Amino acid sequence: MISRRNALLGGARLIGALAGGIVPGLGAGAASAATSAAGTTRRIPYGACVNFTPFLNEAEYRIAFETYCQQVTPEYGLFWGYLRPTRNQFVFDYADKVLAFADLNEMTMRGHTLVWYGAMPDWTKQIGSAAEAERELTLHIEKVVGRYRGRIKTWQVVNEPIDDVKDGAAGLRPSIWLQQLGPKYLDMAFRLAHQADPAAELLINEYDVECVGASYAARRQALLTLVRELLARGVPLHGVGLQGHIQGKYEIDDDGVSSFVSEIKSLGLSVHVTELDVIDKEFAGPITVRDAMVAGRAYDFLNAIFAAERPSAIGTWGITDRYTWVPTWNKRADGLANRPLPLDDHYRPKPLWSVIDYFCQKAP
User: Fold this and answer.
1) Could you read off the pLDDT of 98-108 as tens digits, one per residue?
2) Which CATH fold would you assign to the domain 11-360?
């Protein structure tokens, strides 16, 4: 059994743990930022997604990525809805600018995502046959992966293929691709991406697999079953992305996560943390207490993964509380700002950054 660091302990106790060095390296946030960006040969790369508007307009925002990150992801610049506003139009400006920024700063850029049920342009609702769906999917993946061949080295090919749990089980999530092509759309997506760039690492990416509860266990099992089926069919799948949008009100299922990651490792696949943040709408108390709770949840999640395997990368969905998706769906009832990310809204490192930095430096 992994030792649990309960994020819902009294705030003062966990704050003391962070500041007092119970976990080596925690509490050093700002001091370690510069060395973290420089990295070491053994350091796990840390990255975050880039919101286009502040990226274009705010120097302080760009400096945060230069200071802390070794990887970047265009937040929505590779979604169908942005990339293909019309059937015959591809708009690469967002992704191209973020990639140029990454190259300039000796970072890598991750590809997210080629196939997702969400963020689809309206014209795709007109896809009315399997032949049309296959044609559009083929065109899209060949063109997008081909454009970045050799430059984007990791693609989250299929995002969130597992449906919400119903009657204790989880199947494939409804989408235009499942509707028109059936489950073979998954095989097609990975094979097409591999053909377009045989050297790229190809991942399947999923959320809600980390907490205690029957629905989380069912989603872990459904994802593991799907991964095994894809590998049995010879699909070029190389790794699994665990998003890590942690629902802070629930504890991390230490044993469940570790067992799942062990199974993935046994299949010869890599494990990536791709979209980490902590949904903190139920956390009460002053900022110091709430930030410690957020850090504690992330610690439990990463510790459970590390108990089975050292992940290939750790990424958050955003870098600063100033720009986060969380309040869109998870506003706090008390009207206070959400604080789900490693830097606050003034770009100061928080306890969550100390946790991430600690694990990025953690030896195998």
Assistant:
1) 999 999 999 99
2) TIM Barrel (3.20.20)
